[in-house]
Give the backbone structure.
Amino acid sequence: MSALPGLDDCVHCGLCLPVCPTYAIDRRESQNPRGRIAALRAIEEGRSAPTPGLLRGLDDCLVCRACESACPSGISMEGLMMEHRSRTSDARSDGRTVAERWFLRAVVSSPGVLDRFLGVARLGRSLLPAALLPDTPGPSRLRPARAASPPAATSRLSTETKGRAVLLRGCIADRVQDRETRLAARLLSHFGFEVSISAPGCCGALQRHSGLVDLARELSLERARDLLSGEPDAIVVDSAGCGSALHEPLSDAPELHAVAERGTDTPSLLATIGLPPPPHPIPGPVVFAPPCHQSHGTRSTEATRSLLEHITEGEVVLLPGEEQCCGAAGTYFLRRPAKSRQLGERAKERWERGGRVKTLATGNPGCLLRWESLLRREPGVEVAHPVTLAARAYGLESEER
Amino acid sequence: MTPIRRRRRDDRRLLRALERWLPPSRIIRDPGECALYDTDGLTLHRAPPGGVLLLESADEVEEAVRCCVSHGVPFVPRGAGTGLSGGAIPLDHAWVLDLSRMDRVLEIDPLERTARIEPGVVNLDLDRAAAAQGLRYAPDPSSQRACTVGGNIAENSGGPHCFRHGMTTRHIESLEVVLPDGTRTILAAPSPGRADPRGLFVGSEGTLGIAVEATVALVARPEAVRTQLASFPSLAAACRAVSRVIAAGARPAALEILDRLTIKAVEASVFRAGYPLDAEAVLLVEAEGSAEEIEQETAVVQAACEAEAALAFETADDPVARERLWRGRKGAFGAMGRVARDLYVLDGVVPRTRLAEVIERITKVGERHDLVLSNVFHAGDGNLHPNLSFDARDPEQCARVLAAGDEILRICVEAGGTLSGEHGIGLEKRDHMHLVFDAGELATQERLRAAVDPAGLANPGKVIPGGRGCVEAGHRGPPGSGERTARRIEEVLG
């Protein structure tokens, strides 16, 4: 079997240590990127058996990719973990891994099944006392998606078209932020783009992180074909996890590369046209909590930050320690609930340290759910997708429920 | 009973003693996990520990050392494991006392300009905490984003800005340490005429005890800072430019040189700094002080660079641009992973005036051993970091790396220099100590160590070559006290 990608590029410098969320909690060598790479090397070279301690360290990786932005040697932890998990996944038979695989294979990958699953989950959630389910996301966001059709060209500002844009609906993203997708469609349409919305369906991001690489590749290709069918100029993905996955093709298929080239998000696309001052600016201040996959995957946080600054009267601040994951991390909160909760608590502490700003903006379904759950007892706090705030500032929000 | 079986028995007894007061989640015995502690920033050597303890307070360190001593088990402190001389490699199956959880800045006193810290504080975190009060912690090793101040104290670490501000030892006001016999004492400024125990402790690489708290000196942040970048058609020209700067009486805060291979590696990385790719070498110079001083110094540096036919010269005053220029330097070590999976960073020091000539000889050593050799160095204080890229899985390559390293160290010493500028002796240069110390001097060091650590359990096998005196006899010293240890040190030092 070929060597794992990037395994030979680490000289043990340790610059990844301070940015690794799991190391911040545990301070064990097995819980930081340098140690994970050393573990994979030791196992591969037969110097160590895959002991429970080593496997726990590898399983606990969030694939938040913060280490990738710190690594002078350019190691892709995502690539490394994806390959490692893909090689070991089939051999694993612990309950959580099996449940996760089932969820990713059978539920997430098919929109119809996902809808039924969420229906049951909502019912279960409403029957069980909340205390039993402290980590499951709030039910309000997990609903079957509604509108699939693009908005009628409403109050379009200019008659000249700025190009064709297609919006990704996704799977979980479609349930969590379908309203945001419609708002993004309105915004883009308002500023002169010809907008269409793709059919719902999974892009393979979650499967990729759990090592179901073949399935991830297949799903991403399916999405790519669908997204490209209308020959769009821009493919807009406002869920950072999906954006990051589509940004980095899993094969040489030309469709995947075409999607990667045209992939963008609403703030980045709006930045290309120059926006007028908003008629109803957000009072502010706003705290921006960039999703990890936006910071370290698509690396497109600057456009979002600029957009927030443009539409906000008050200050826009970055969440302190913004490179530290909030613990949601795809299916991590299901797979590693205790650690996920610890990371969530730390994220909340950072929000408190940053001045308890009442409006928190973040552009990823997992992060939205996590922050809503973290701040649900805080009076007057709003957790919003940047697109929602932008739509509000331009008076387009009230048209969508 | 064989020594191995005896050690296993001792380890089991130690474990039982530890389990009485330390939660199991903070004792690592999983063999795979333990093996991750078998090396630090020097991957040329490996030795797995008997176990690892994640400690959270000075009391716990004291208790852990006492437990180790009473079971005759050696121990090694560890911070972030970024040291480059193998200081944290646990020889003799020593137990690793991991202090990275002790990461609090306890207090900053802006009037006294000091900070009281735990040893696991990351160097850059301390500087950031100081910056909030308009102050600065000056020593800035290239690993400062990750390395801990406790480790800096153990190795007497330097960094680019130590050219002007001095090494770690210059910045230590007082230390609270756990001595190798498990007693805790404070090391502070001595009364006149007595030896300074801080000077003895800083740089002792864990052989004289473990710092559990430190009061460090902070300095004012400079009024203005300017970073200058010059590129040269040859490494020798860059070295000569440094000599010209010094000869003209300028005293920059930092003077750093990177060679072509290093430039290429960092420019391909997230640490890309915009260094010109056509240059054989770049020189980074930092000026600190008043606006007027900075103008004067820039003129001197620019003239020196022009006299050596610099290809380009640029300056940066704003923090973002300056940070960009420094990024490449600080990411240089890790970026070499792009060349090969292991890197041996040497640390020899030579007189500044002989830099160009020594570099040339070192380059030839690399060629003769058919090794990829790159150079990054603190040119201001003649502290070289020849970097040898290799693959540690290949024993033949390792042998060539060790042979080349040996020759390079000898060249440095021959040129009137020494073994280490800032990484410490550790395991790496232990067997070269005789190049700079005679038998008598080494014997004195050994007696000193035995006075402080009669049982020979504190980071065994480091710094001093050969036998470890009374360790081999296996006898343990009497349960000590800080005063008694101080008396023993005074006896050795006369």
